[in-house]
Amino acid sequence: MQTAPERGSYPLYEFALTAVLMFTVVTAIRWVLDPASPAVLGNVRLALLLVGALAGALVFGLFRSPWGRRSGAHVNPAVTLALWLLRAFPGRGVAVYVVAQLGGSLAGTALARLAWGPAVARVGYGAAAAAPSWNGWAVFAAEGGCLVVVTLVIGFFLAHPAHERWFPWVLAVLICTIVAVLGPLSGGSANPARQFGPALMSGSTARLWIYLVAPALGAALGAAAHHLIRRGRPSGRRPRRDPTASHPT
Question: Taking the model in full, what pTM does it have?
Answer without folding.
Answer: 0.89
